[in-house]
Design a protein that fits this description.
mainly alpha; 3 helices; elongated
Amino acid sequence: MAKEYCHRHYDKDTDRNKDVYLSLLRMYLSPPDVHCLGPIKMELSEPQANLKAALHVLELHHSKLNTAKVDCTTAL
Protein backbone atom coordinates (compact mmCIF):
# COMPACT_ATOMS: atom_id res chain seq x y z
CA MET A 1 0.00 0.00 0.00
CA ALA A 2 2.88 2.37 0.73
CA LYS A 3 4.35 1.82 -2.74
CA GLU A 4 0.98 2.52 -4.34
CA TYR A 5 0.67 5.69 -2.27
CA CYS A 6 4.05 6.83 -3.57
CA HIS A 7 3.08 6.08 -7.17
CA ARG A 8 -0.13 8.06 -6.84
CA HIS A 9 1.17 11.04 -4.87
CA TYR A 10 4.73 11.69 -6.02
CA ASP A 11 5.04 15.21 -7.40
CA LYS A 12 8.49 16.74 -7.79
CA ASP A 13 7.02 20.25 -7.79
CA THR A 14 5.11 20.01 -4.51
CA ASP A 15 7.07 20.24 -1.25
CA ARG A 16 4.60 17.96 0.51
CA ASN A 17 4.80 15.21 -2.13
CA LYS A 18 8.33 15.29 -3.52
CA ASP A 19 9.85 13.18 -0.73
CA VAL A 20 7.36 10.29 -0.61
CA TYR A 21 9.92 7.85 -2.01
CA LEU A 22 12.45 9.05 0.56
CA SER A 23 9.91 8.28 3.29
CA LEU A 24 9.36 4.82 1.81
CA LEU A 25 13.10 4.19 1.69
CA ARG A 26 13.50 5.29 5.32
CA MET A 27 10.61 3.04 6.37
CA TYR A 28 12.28 0.04 4.72
CA LEU A 29 15.64 0.82 6.33
CA SER A 30 14.33 1.79 9.78
CA PRO A 31 10.85 0.35 10.29
CA PRO A 32 8.84 1.86 13.15
CA ASP A 33 9.04 0.20 16.54
CA VAL A 34 6.17 -2.17 17.36
CA HIS A 35 5.28 0.06 20.31
CA CYS A 36 4.20 2.72 17.80
CA LEU A 37 1.26 0.51 16.90
CA GLY A 38 -0.42 1.18 20.22
CA PRO A 39 -1.93 -1.35 22.60
CA ILE A 40 -2.16 -4.52 20.54
CA LYS A 41 -3.11 -7.74 22.30
CA MET A 42 -0.71 -9.99 20.43
CA GLU A 43 2.98 -10.72 20.38
CA LEU A 44 4.85 -9.09 17.52
CA SER A 45 8.51 -9.44 16.74
CA GLU A 46 10.62 -6.34 16.34
CA PRO A 47 10.57 -5.22 12.70
CA GLN A 48 13.76 -5.71 10.73
CA ALA A 49 15.16 -3.54 7.97
CA ASN A 50 14.13 -4.73 4.52
CA LEU A 51 17.30 -4.12 2.52
CA LYS A 52 16.01 -5.88 -0.58
CA ALA A 53 12.98 -3.59 -0.77
CA ALA A 54 15.12 -0.52 -0.03
CA LEU A 55 17.49 -1.41 -2.86
CA HIS A 56 14.52 -1.94 -5.15
CA VAL A 57 13.26 1.59 -4.37
CA LEU A 58 16.74 2.96 -5.11
CA GLU A 59 16.95 1.00 -8.35
CA LEU A 60 13.56 2.08 -9.68
CA HIS A 61 13.16 5.57 -8.23
CA HIS A 62 16.66 6.97 -7.71
CA SER A 63 15.86 9.95 -9.91
CA LYS A 64 12.99 10.88 -7.57
CA LEU A 65 15.16 10.92 -4.43
CA ASN A 66 16.98 13.96 -3.13
CA THR A 67 20.33 12.30 -2.48
CA ALA A 68 21.33 15.07 -0.07
CA LYS A 69 18.51 13.90 2.22
CA VAL A 70 19.31 10.18 2.00
CA ASP A 71 21.29 9.09 5.06
CA CYS A 72 21.55 5.33 5.06
CA THR A 73 24.14 5.21 7.83
CA THR A 74 21.56 5.80 10.57
CA ALA A 75 19.64 2.68 9.61
CA LEU A 76 22.59 0.32 9.51
